[in-house]
Amino acid sequence: MAMGIFQQLDWLTTRVKRLCCAVEQIQQSGAGSYKVYTALLTQSGGDGPAGNCSDDPQPLVIGVTYQISLNDGTGDFTNVGAPNNNIGTYFVATGTTPNNWGTPGDVCLDYNTGAPVVTVLENTIGNIYWTYSNVGLYLATLANSFPEDTTAVFNGTQLQISGDWSLMMSFRGNDNEIEVRTIADGSLSDSLLSNTPIEIRVYN
Questions:
Q1: Which of 37, 52, 59 lies closest to 155, judged by CA?
Q2: N-to-C CA span, the chain
Q3: For the chain, what is the radius of gyration of the CA atoms?
Q4: How far apart are CA 92 and CA 122, in angstroms?
C-alpha cells in the first residue's frame, strides 16, 4: 500500500517536471505572448471641440483624451496620464488635478466631447488615446503599435431593446490606428457606446 503511494508520487513528480519544461519552452519561444489593452468605451453626442486653459482651469475628467495645445513650460500633466508636457502630446486623463496648470492663459488642453471616454482595465501596450473622426467613427491611436498582421481586436456583445444597431471594429489601414465604427439601422451613428468592452491584443 505504502509502495503504491510512493510510486504514484514519483509518477506525479515526473509529470509535473515535464509540464514545467514544456511551459518554459513555450515561454522562451514567445508563442502565445502578447501585449493587451482592455477598456470600456462610452460615447455620446457629435463632434464637439473644446478647451481647458490655465486662466480658468477646470478639473480634468478621468477617461477623456486631452491634447496639450499650449504650454509655456510651466504646465505639468505627468501625474494625470501625460507621458510628457510637450505641445501636441495626447493623453487619457487618469486623474482630475494636474501637478501644475502653469501660467494663467499660457497653458491649454484641447479635447472633444464626442470622443469616447474610456475606463481602462488593463494596458500593457502604451499611451493609447481616443479621438472623434466623424459620425460613428472613432480612432484609437498609438504610433507604430498596431501591426495589421499581429493585432487582434475583440469587442463585447451589445443588445438594444428597440431598434436595430450593431458595433463594428476594423483597421484604418495603417499601423497607427484602430477604427471603431458604430452603426444603427444601416447608418453610421453616434451615442451607441455605453461601457462597451474592447480588447486589443498585439502579439509578439
A1: 37
A2: 50
A3: 23
A4: 13
Q: Give the domain ranges of the chain.
A: 34-203
pLDDT tens-digit map of 15-67: 666 656 554 554 554 555 999 999 999 999 999 999 999 999 999 999 999 99
Looking up cell 471641440 gives 49
Asked whether the beta carbons of 170 and 179 are under 8 A apart, the reply is: yes
Residue 194 cell numbers, joined: 455605453
Q: What's the pTM? A: 0.81
The helix/strand/coil state of 12 is helix
**193, 194, 197, 202: CA torsion to nearest 10:** 40
d(CA 174, CA 74): 35
In the block, residue with C-alpha cell 460615447 = 43
Distances (CA, A) of 118 to 56, 64, 105, 191: 25, 7, 28, 14
How far is residue 90's CA from residue 110's CA, in Å, rounded to a whole number? 9
